[in-house]
């Protein structure tokens, strides 16, 4: 499987600078890059100046609006050329979205297209936030908020130009407490931190936060949760919260196998196949779930889970042992 | 689920659907004022029915709390809204998963 990382960030956040830095690193030069530019002149292509033949530019408009045609076809065409030896055998794909893009449709396309899923896997979503203008950008542009809410990692750019990033960090933390933040100057950051974290639990210490209609909601459960209850709960959230549920992450002890925690990861109503770990990463064996959504009552997820769990447990036949 | 717990859950659901309404505990269940709706738990003898959604001249059985929420949503006119069906992504796990501290 070819890992695919999506790089988002509002206009001017420094996505192109970051990519240029990453591709200069010999360990990451074997990356294919897909750039979505919102304009007729593909400036970013020239700015990145990748040396790899695999570099591809998409400049037909906002990627989230034409994603199924352009992004999917570009990925598949790239993979065909890779298989045919027409481009160097790149190790990963980095997708830079336009600054105005909503990442959700892009992620859905990556997760649901059968042809893409056969050869690619979504590795991470990285969101860049401008340390100088980020606070006002978040306040004025819903697109920027959604980019932050959907991130696995948040990179603060231009931090050398900002006198104080505390307000921005707090705003980002409120939008997405599950995403670790790190500061970078001129794109200087370890690519491993950005692109190889997979989907595992950086969010374990996340707590509930709220800001202007956006809420991150944390649920901690001592007792293992029946698999059926977990599934029904996610279905209920998808059904009733719809597009307002942006992300769901969790490390859950299932009643059927509590010693092997399961990683839950969803983007809106799209759930990654569950992944079981061989064991708990820490001594804390509680189930922990973090939701990020817009306009979701803060107690609803926990109350719904408790109600469903009660029904599921009540439906189980008595233990005959 | 006790009547207060049911009330709190339904109040959250109404808020999620942006449906104004006041809920109160009534007759062993929960009543939605102004809409003549009442929700209450079914007797054990009624299984598999777990919940009843009652309105004048009509009583609808629900076999789960999710079914109850769906029925209530229709009853209050919130419709499908942004309803989505849960989908499982086709993409496999990335090759480079790493555990913290591993």
TrEMBL record, chain A:
Reaction equation(s) it catalyzes: GTP + H2O = GDP + phosphate + H(+)
Keywords: Chaperone, Hydrolase, Nucleotide-binding
Top-level taxonomic group: Bacteria
SMART domains (UniProt xref): CobW_C
Cellular-component GO terms for this entry: cytoplasm
Pfam families to which the protein is assigned, alphabetical: cobW, CobW_C
Sequence ranges assigned to domain CobW C-terminal in this UniProt record: 214-309
Annotated function: Zinc chaperone that directly transfers zinc cofactor to target proteins, thereby activating them. Zinc is transferred from the CXCC motif in the GTPase domain to the zinc binding site in target proteins in a process requiring GTP hydrolysis.
Protein's UniProt name: GTP-binding protein
TrEMBL record, chain B:
Domain of life of the native organism: Bacteria
Name of the featured protein: Uncharacterized protein
Origin organism lineage: Bacteria, Pseudomonadati, Pseudomonadota, Alphaproteobacteria, Acetobacterales
């Amino acid at each position: 499987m070819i890992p695919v990382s999506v790089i988002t960030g509002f206009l001017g956040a420094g996505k192109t600078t970051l990519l240029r830095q990453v591709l200069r690193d010999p360990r990451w030069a074997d990356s294919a890059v897909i750039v979505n530019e919102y304009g007729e002149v593909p400036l970013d292509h020239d700015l990145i100046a990748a040396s790899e033949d695999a570099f591809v530019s998409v400049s037909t408009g906002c990627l989230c609006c034409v994603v199924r045609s352009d992004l999917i076809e570009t990925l598949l065409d790239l993979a065909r050329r890779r298989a045919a030896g027409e481009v160097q055998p790149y190790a990963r794909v980095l997708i830079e979205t336009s600054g105005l893009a909503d990442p959700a449709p892009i992620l859905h396309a990556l997760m649901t297209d059968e042809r893409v899923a056969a050869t690619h896997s979504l590795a991470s979503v990285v969101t860049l936030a401008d340390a100088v203008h980020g606070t006002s950008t978040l306040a004025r542009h819903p697109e920027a908020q959604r980019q932050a809410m959907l991130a696995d990692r948040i990179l603060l750019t231009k931090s050398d130009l900002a006198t104080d990033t505390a307000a921005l960090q707090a705003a980002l933390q409120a939008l997405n407490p599950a995403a670790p933040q790190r500061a970078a100057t001129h794109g200087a950051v370890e690519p491993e931190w950005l692109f190889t974290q997979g989907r595992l639990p950086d969010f374990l210490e996340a707590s509930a936060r709220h800001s202007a209609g956006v809420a991150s909601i944390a649920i901690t459960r001592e007792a293992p949760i029946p698999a059926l209850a977990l599934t029904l709960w996610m279905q209920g959230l998808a059904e009733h919260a719809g597009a307002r549920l942006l992300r769901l992450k969790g490390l859950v002890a299932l009643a059927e196998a509590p010693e092997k925690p399961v990683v839950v990861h969803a983007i809106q109503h799209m759930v990654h196949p569950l992944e079981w770990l061989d064991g708990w990463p820490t001594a804390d064996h509680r189930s922990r779930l973090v939701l990020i959504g817009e306009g979701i009552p803060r107690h609803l997820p926990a109350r719904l889970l408790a109600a469903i769990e009660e029904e599921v447990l009540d439906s189980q036949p008595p233990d005959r042992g | 689920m006790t009547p207060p717990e049911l009330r709190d859950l339904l109040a959250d659901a109404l808020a999620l659907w942006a449906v104004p309404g006041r809920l109160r505990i009534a007759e062993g269940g929960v009543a939605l004022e102004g809409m003549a709706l009442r929700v209450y738990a079914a007797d054990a003898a009624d299984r598999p029915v777990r919940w009843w959604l009652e309105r004048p001249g009509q009583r609808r059985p629900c076999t789960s709390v999710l079914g109850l929420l769906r029925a209530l949503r229709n009853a209050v006119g919130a419709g499908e809204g942004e309803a989505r069906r849960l989908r499982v992504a086709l993409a496999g796990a990335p090759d480079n998963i790493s555990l913290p501290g591993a």
